[in-house]
Known about the structure:
Lyase 2-enoyl-coa Hydratase, Chain  A, domain 2; about 260 residues; 4-stranded mixed sheet; 2 domains; alpha/beta
Amino acid sequence: MGEQDVLFSKLGSIAHITINRAEALNALNDSVLKKLDRVLDDIEKDPSIIAAVITGAGDKAFIAGADVKEIKEAGSGRTAFIGGGQQTIYKIKTSSKVMIAAVNGYALGGGLEVALMCDFRIASEKAKLGLPEAGLGVMAGYGGTQMLPRLVGPGRAKYMILTGAILSAREAYDIGLVDKVCAPEELNSEVTAITEKIAASGPLSIKGSKEAIDRGLALSLEEALKLELSIYDKVANSEDAEDGLSAFLEKRKPVFRGK
Length: 259
């Protein structure tokens, strides 16, 4: 297994994951997925991490898709092979941390599915996004047929999936597929500014807000409002909330401890 296929680093409360196969446009192979699985588990277990940024090495691709050669060679075990990758990528969606995709180039097939599992997507103007699997006689299997329609609506999702359309960053922004577009040279600084805002906020508030949104979407509005209030109760009665409210009234910066 290539131990450098996935790079991991941490700066303060922010983790950084880089898919490091620039020569293969950061395609997801078995080695990458196994390493990514371990990294995601480590991030989830680390209480000091509040958010993680996922990106691809180089300036051409975020992740250009799954490794077609490995899918072909999997033969009759193809479904199990893809199913294992789906389980790994789904850990991004279910993480208690804020997961951010910094889309710096091609985000195709499995690459777009990784981005779809993130909480939001910041894209370079050079980014190209799509699910072109139908052109290979297969289909998205890492969650694309489920996450894309939830994000952009079933009509747009079917258009993209059934035609294999590749969207520019601006086109993706227009339909809500990405949340912000910036110049390529500004992508890192833009993502850093966003993570700094998240890191400066109350960690319990960030975690509680994400949980309320993610769990609430699967409930009726009445049930979701009850869920919101139950999570609010835990957050608002924390030591962080006491200091945050006092800091506002005293015109000082709060000191959050995650308690």
